[in-house]
Amino acid sequence: MVRGLSVSYGDVVAVSGVDFQIEKGEVLGLLGPNGAGKSTIIDAITGLRAPSAGAIEICGVDLLRRPADAKRKIGVAMQTTGLPAAITPREALEAFGRLYGVAARVGELEARFGLEAKSGARVATLSGGQKQRLALALAFVNDPELLVLDEPTAGLDPASRRELHGYIGGLKREGRAVLIATHDMDEAYRLCDRLIILHQGQIVAQGAPGALAARVGAAMRVEVHAGTPVQAEWLSAEPLFDHLVVDGFTVSFSTANLEAALARLMAVLSLQAVEVVTLRASRASLEDIIAELVQRPGLE
Fold this sequence. Notes:
Blueprint: E1 2-9, E2 12-20, E3 27-31, H1 38-45, E4 53-58, E5 61-62, H2 67-71, E6 74-77, H3 89-100, H4 106-112, H5 128-139, E7 146-150, H6 158-173, E8 177-182, H7 185-191, E9 194-199, E10 202-207, H8 209-215, E11 220-226, E12 242-247, E13 250-255, H9 258-271, E14 276-283, H10 286-295
Parallel strand pairs: 3-8, 3-9, 6-7, 7-8
Antiparallel strand pairs: 1-2, 1-4, 4-5, 9-10, 11-13, 11-14, 12-13
């Protein structure tokens, strides 16, 4: 549980008055653009950065008063492992195992995270996906109740991303709490039960991914290219079309009700005798949602 968390770097306030709680078996996402405060919050939760104000409890243990006990309950996987290039996965796991007094778990962790075939390879020779699996294995050495993952799939190919998503889903099913910092809205939709959206060090909204996007009328973004120019006045009064832009042959808008919006769009274009050449619908981007939330505060 985080209450009233504030972190400053000199005169710069990086995080201000942040409150949230994560439950067992929940995947909670911290989302925001670069500089929003995600990494600062993770640094504070993992004990790497002392807060300027506020309280942090890890599974009921006060991090500031009992840091050693609290840290035993956390596993952390950052964007990079920071391991020496010449070390092997087995050597790294053995070193972490000795640190926590659980060296006997090395073989179990290699098997769980698919590292058996690469246990003797140097870290420098591992693929991006293999390095992230190693990061998860290292985070799991102490059998933590809370897993903290910072941009876990950044730079990975689609296959490696799907594989890592599977591992994270498994952690949730075991009843572990998982905190993920990401700027990837699609990843957040796939993995997270609940999202906290940050902007300039403050929480601007939190909730389930779909509900959060729908609340700001930006669940989906639609872009249509027509064969002939579209008359904007026929569409501008329609309540289903949020952030409508009509530019000659192109129509784009956001909507919380994709099926109804597309049906109405097709009806209007048919009345104009306009033929649709291409139509693309995609989830609203993180930037779309943050922009709307910042313009319309109080949506939490």
